[in-house]
């Protein structure tokens, strides 16, 4: 009799699969197929046919592409490190305000994160570009410290990247501070710990997974940031995203398979970074839920 | 011949764990049967299987001679109240109660009349137009009860309906549910992990452990005659003794069981100069040392070491034994007739 | 019991500094859009509306606006039609597939737009379905781009209202699954659906990478238009940028309102 009910029940629930079909088709067509095509393309020569590792060889040996990879990694690393430090400090500071003010502050900071990509690059050009308002003002006031600053260079890119990293960093970090309960601080101070000792021995270790996880997200975010860089420096600065874009969709040099190889390398770096986040989030969750798991 | 509700050989496995292991259970019409057990014993799964919310791996469910096993939930004529109420937040209390009738295609007039009667039954007529989030937890659960009763189910399933509520509300609501159940003569399966709840509400209690019903009976039997070590431990502060421990206390025990239960009330503490005790009642007198004393309101509970066995002993808190401090030597008497043999199974 | 948070002067000045830093580019864009001439002074000397005037008389602006609007609207509508049943079925009937689904859905988040564009161009510039450079391809790409937002938003709202339990309760009361969905699940997740929709819309409205690489100048959206004109007049692009920003701002305010309503409505 038991073999009789099982098929019957299955049939009754079969209709629900219909709801998944369009989803599966869309994901297959526009997500999985492109990824597979890109990976297979990265192993094919741009001229001729067959299997080759030449694209990866070029990507990792040509000084030109190597420089692009290095630039991207460095800019991402620096901007996310600065982003995380500023984020940690500002997120903590935000938790010290009353909920009403706190929410306003966070809302304002989130609002500015809409201001990214082309408009952001553009705003910085107005402020600090060759004829930017501040550039001219500083020159007029004779502030020589800023005379060498060039927005369209390494330091300019870092400046703009940090701008869009900070709100994201704050948004991701500030909930972690609420994981640190006021009672823990009270308990620590009753046990004789100073505020600094509490943060060093309890607070920061608990924050650490969240901070590293956020670092992963910021890094991936910077590695993949295209619009800002494209609008700010165009083809003039050697970045991985810019190279990929011009290899695949460029008018002059069209080498889609080399572009694919570079894209695979970029994807590997961001996937690793996001994986770091995933792994750290799990650890953070372990800390913060252990109290409720008992019973 | 068949019972009103008849569950036979129910089994269910989740990822290699036998959640329900050949469960058999019958209920008579109008009976309130409680499934009692620790969390994870399978009691809620059993309820969900009866409702059709979880598939069975094997076995059959018969309600009033009708085989439910293959029916979808909506055709089973079974009502269910969830621990989390599961009221529809977009509908008012009245609309929630009417929902099942609306699905059956009853007219607006009939629905309103029936809903009014049910709201009256749970004493919430005034809250007809309130939304669930405007009601207290206890009120929400009463609406949920009214909602499941509105369609006149042939069987009512209550899945820990009180465990999300405060202690006082829980006590009131449990009396109320029992009264309504009796008035409507509604056959009910009630799932709980609270012994007191089970003992006060039920016609019959089924104790479950690891997917099996380990003992069933009326509340008094369940409380006074635990058959297994698991039931003895789960039902309260029974002293569970190994055979060696029992022999140390009594020198001689009946039966071949490996473990025994001794109710804490059945051990008598003797006054210091109380010498007359009954040579002929069969009670044993023993010497012991008080290890701990705790006052539980009307009862004082002692932990007393007697020949290497730690016994829990309860006395009425009548103020006479105030001087019984930790470390004091005491004499106590135990009755071999009160010693219950336990089945190791289910420990 | 919780102590009143104490924000000392240090914290206040830190937040003020942060806000100045974050708002400065915005303010600059805003001022520039209204400035007749702005050089060598802290604030512009003369104000004008001529840049907005120029923007509103430029046909290309309206074409770009329309392109953005219809592409986003179609993509979001498609996403909703596809995702609503899928997320519902997954949350209610196959909760075990959750982690697998999360993997699929997080992928667009982890894979940068450039990479996605490379794959899409390769797949669709030749072969049986040749739709490179068309709106179809862009809509497909947009669908994937908003996948994480749609999935999370819909799933969260279904879990907030405990859709699986509501479905069970409704089915026990005699409702068929589709009817149960329409009467008790959908009305309750409606605010969540609207939030996901608007959020996805605003994400796509600001999209540049995919648009630029997949269709570029063929179908200029508002972002591409802004990029094209930024080489010409700084003041004009500021006017476009600030208009775009105000629009997104209004959208997020609506989102915020809806979010509050969603939370209030489902409190037990």
From TrEMBL, chain B:
Residues 5-235 form the ABC transporter domain. It is an enzyme of class 7 (translocase). Its EC number is 7.6.2.9. It catalyses: a quaternary ammonium(out) + ATP + H2O = a quaternary ammonium(in) + ADP + phosphate + H(+). GO terms for cellular component: ATP-binding cassette (ABC) transporter complex. Transmembrane segments: none annotated. It comes from the Bacteria. Keywords: ATP-binding, Nucleotide-binding, Transport. InterPro entries: AAA+_ATPase, ABC_SmlMolc_Importer, ABC_transporter-like_ATP-bd, ABC_transporter-like_CS, Mo/tungstate-bd_C_term_dom, P-loop_NTPase, Transp-assoc_OB_typ2. GO terms for molecular function: ABC-type quaternary ammonium compound transporting activity; ATP binding; ATP hydrolysis activity. PANTHER family: SPERMIDINE/PUTRESCINE IMPORT ATP-BINDING PROTEIN POTA, SPERMIDINE_PUTRESCINE IMPORT ATP-BINDING PROTEIN POTA. The complex is composed of two ATP-binding proteins (OpuCA), two transmembrane proteins (OpuCB and OpuCD) and a solute-binding protein (OpuCC). This is Carnitine transport ATP-binding protein OpuCA.
From TrEMBL, chain C:
The keyword Cell inner membrane applies. PROSITE patterns: ABC_TM1 (PS50928). It is a multi-pass membrane protein. Belongs to the binding-protein-dependent transport system permease family. The keyword Chloroplast does not apply. The lineage of its organism: Bacteria, Bacillati, Bacillota, Bacilli, Bacillales. This is ABC transporter permease subunit. Its main location: membrane. SUPFAM superfamilies: MetI-like. It holds the Pfam family BPD_transp_1.
């Amino acid at each position: 009799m038991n073999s009789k009910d099982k098929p019957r029940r299955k049939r009754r629930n079969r209709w629900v699969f219909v709801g998944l079909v369009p989803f599966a088709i869309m994901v297959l067509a526009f997500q999985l197929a492109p990824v597979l095509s890109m990976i297979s393309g990265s192993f094919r020569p741009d001229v001729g046919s067959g299997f080759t590792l030449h694209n990866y060889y070029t990507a990792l040996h040509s000084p030109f592409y190597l420089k692009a990879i290095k630039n991207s990694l460095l800019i991402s690393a620096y901007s996310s490190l600065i982003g995380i430090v500023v984020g940690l400090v500002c997120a903590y500071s935000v938790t010290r305000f009353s909920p009403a003010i706190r929410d306003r502050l966070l809302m304002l900071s989130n609002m500015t994160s809409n201001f990214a990509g082309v408009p952001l690059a553009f705003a910085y050009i107005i402020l600090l570009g060759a004829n930017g308002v501040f550039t001219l003002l500083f020159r007029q006031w004779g502030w020589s410290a800023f005379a060498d600053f060039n927005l369209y260079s390494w330091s300019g890119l870092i400046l703009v990247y940090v701008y869009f990293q900070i709100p994201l960093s704050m948004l991701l970090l500030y909930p972690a501070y609420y994981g640190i309960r006021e009672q823990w601080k009270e308990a620590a101070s009753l046990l004789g710990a100073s505020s600094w000792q509490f943060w060093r021995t309890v607070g920061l270790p608990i924050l650490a997974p969240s901070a590293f996880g956020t670092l992963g997200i910021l890094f991936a975010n910077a590695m993949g940031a295209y619009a800002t860089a494209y609008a700010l420096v165009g083809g003039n600065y050697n970045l991985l995203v810019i190279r990929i874009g011009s290899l695949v969709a460029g008018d002059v040099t069209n080498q889609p398979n080399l572009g694919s190889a570079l894209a695979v390398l970029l994807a590997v770096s961001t996937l690793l970074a996001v994986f770091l986040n995933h792994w750290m989030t799990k650890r953070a969750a372990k800390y913060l839920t252990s109290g409720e798991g008992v019973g | 011949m068949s019972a009103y509700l008849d569950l036979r050989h129910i089994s269910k496995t989740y990822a290699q764990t036998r959640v329900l292991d050949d469960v058999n259970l019958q209920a008579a019409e109008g009976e309130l049967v409680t499934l009692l057990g620790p969390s994870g014993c399978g009691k809620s799964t059993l309820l969900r299987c009866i409702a059709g919310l979880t598939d069975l791996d094997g076995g059959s469910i018969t309600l009033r001679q009708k085989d439910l096993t293959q029916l979808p939930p909506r055709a089973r004529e079974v009502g269910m109240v969830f621990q989390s109420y599961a009221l529809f937040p977009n509908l008012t209390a009245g609309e929630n109660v009417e929902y099942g009738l609306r699905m059956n295609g009853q007219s607006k007039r009939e629905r309103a009349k029936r809903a009014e009667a049910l709201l009256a039954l749970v004493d919430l007529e005034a809250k007809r137009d309130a939304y669930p989030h405007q009601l207290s937890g206890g009120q929400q659960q009463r609406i949920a009860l009214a909602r499941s009763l509105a369609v006149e189910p042939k069987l009512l399933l209550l899945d820990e309906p009180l465990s999300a509520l405060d202690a006082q509300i829980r006590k009131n609501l449990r009396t109320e549910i029992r009264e309504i159940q009796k008035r409507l003569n509604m056959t009910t399966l009630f799932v709980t992990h609270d012994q007191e709840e089970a003992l006060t509400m039920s016609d019959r209690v089924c104790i479950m452990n690891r997917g099996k019903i380990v003992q069933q009976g009326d509340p008094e039997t369940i409380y006074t005659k635990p058959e297994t070590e698991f039931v003895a431990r789960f039902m309260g502060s029974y002293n569970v003794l190994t055979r060696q421990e029992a022999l140390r206390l009594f020198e001689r025990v009946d039966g071949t069981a490996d473990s025994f239960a001794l109710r804490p009330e059945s051990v008598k503490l003797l006054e210091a100069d109380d010498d007359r005790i009954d040579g002929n009642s069969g009670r044993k007198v023993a010497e012991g040392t008080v290890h701990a004393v705790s006052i539980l309101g009307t009862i004082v509970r002692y932990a007393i070491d007697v020949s290497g066995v730690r016994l829990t002993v309860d006395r009425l808190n009548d103020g006479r034994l105030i001087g019984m401090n930790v470390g004091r030597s005491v004499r106590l008497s135990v009755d071999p007739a009160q010693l219950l043999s336990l089945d190791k199974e289910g420990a | 019991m919780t102590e009143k948070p104490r924000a000392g002067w240090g914290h206040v000045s830190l937040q003020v500094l942060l806000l100045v830093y974050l708002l400065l580019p915005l303010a600059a864009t805003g001022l520039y859009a209204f400035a007749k001439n702005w050089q060598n002074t802290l604030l512009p000397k003369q104000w004008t509306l001529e840049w907005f005037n120029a923007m509103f008389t430029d046909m290309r602006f309206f074409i770009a606006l329309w392109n953005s609007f219809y592409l986003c609207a179609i993509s979001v509508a498609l996403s909703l039609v596809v995702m609503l049943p899928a997320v519902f079925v997954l949350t209610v009937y196959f909760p075990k597939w959750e982690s697998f689904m999360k993997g699929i859905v997080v992928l667009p988040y982890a894979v940068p737009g450039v990479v996605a564009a490379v794959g899409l161009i390769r797949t669709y510039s030749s072969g049986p379905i040749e739709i490179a450079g068309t709106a179809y391809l862009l809509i497909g790409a947009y669908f994937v781009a908003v996948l994480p937002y749609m999935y999370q938003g819909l799933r969260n709202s279904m879990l907030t209202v405990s859709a699986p339990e509501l479905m069970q309760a409704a089915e026990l009361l005699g409702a068929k699954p589709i009817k149960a969905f329409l009467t008790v699940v959908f009305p309750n997740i409606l605010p969540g659906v609207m939030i996901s929709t608007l959020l996805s819309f605003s994400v796509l409205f600001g999209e540049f990478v995919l648009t630029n690489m997949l269709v570029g100048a063929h179908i200029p959206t508002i972002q591409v238009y802004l990029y094209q004109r930024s080489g010409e007049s700084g003041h004009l692009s500021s006017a476009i940028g600030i208009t775009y920003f105000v629009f997104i701002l209004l959208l997020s305010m609506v989102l915020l309102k809806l979010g509050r309503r969603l939370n209030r409505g489902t409190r037990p």
